[in-house]
Design goal:
Elements (H helix, E strand, L loop, with lengths): L2 H9 L4 H26 L1 H24 L5 H4 L1 H22 L6 H24 L5 H10 L8
Helix pairs in contact: 3-5, 3-6, 5-6
Length: about 150
């Protein structure tokens, strides 16, 4: 028996297409397995991002419904934000894993994202009237000064 026939019979691959498909599945499985390890080693960071993004989404949708300005296109940004922030976090954690001296990288990149999302939640809750605090209202007015129309 030839070596080629032996390998084909051992791996149960009849054609080149079967071999290519099996190789692709193995490569993709390895990549997903690697990211599964990164996710489960840092599940709290992924959950923190999910919580602030989802709470901001719910508060923002509530404000949009209250002011009659709901847009599906803007509501779908939830998926975009989650995918972007999770991909960014996975990439940073991968760099940290490869370079132990970059242990600070995830905090330096993810903390500003979390802070801006929390500020957005506070703004939306203020607009809904759930949080009524004069200091918060003043701070939010100063933060959003750039959004005012220029005269």
């Amino acid at each position: 028996m030839k070596l080629k026939e032996l390998l084909i019979s051992i791996m149960h691959l009849k054609t080149l297409g079967d071999f290519i498909m099996a190789a692709l599945v193995a490569i993709i499985g390895g990549i997903f397995g690697y990211f599964k390890v990164i996710y489960f080693d840092n599940v709290e960071m992924f959950e923190a991002i999910a919580w602030v993004v989802v709470i901001d989404f719910l508060a923002g949708v509530s404000v949009a419904f209250k002011s009659d300005k709901f847009q599906t296109k803007k509501a779908l940004k939830l998926v975009y934000y989650l995918a972007t922030y999770w991909t960014l976090l996975a990439m940073v954690l991968q760099v940290e894993k490869g370079f132990p001296s970059a242990f600070w990288l995830s905090e330096a990149i993810i903390m500003p994202i979390l802070v801006f999302q929390v500020i957005s939640v506070l703004k939306n809750l203020n607009l809904l009237g759930i949080i009524q605090n004069p200091l918060l209202t003043e701070i939010l007015t100063k933060i959003d000064k750039h959004k005012e129309p220029q005269t």
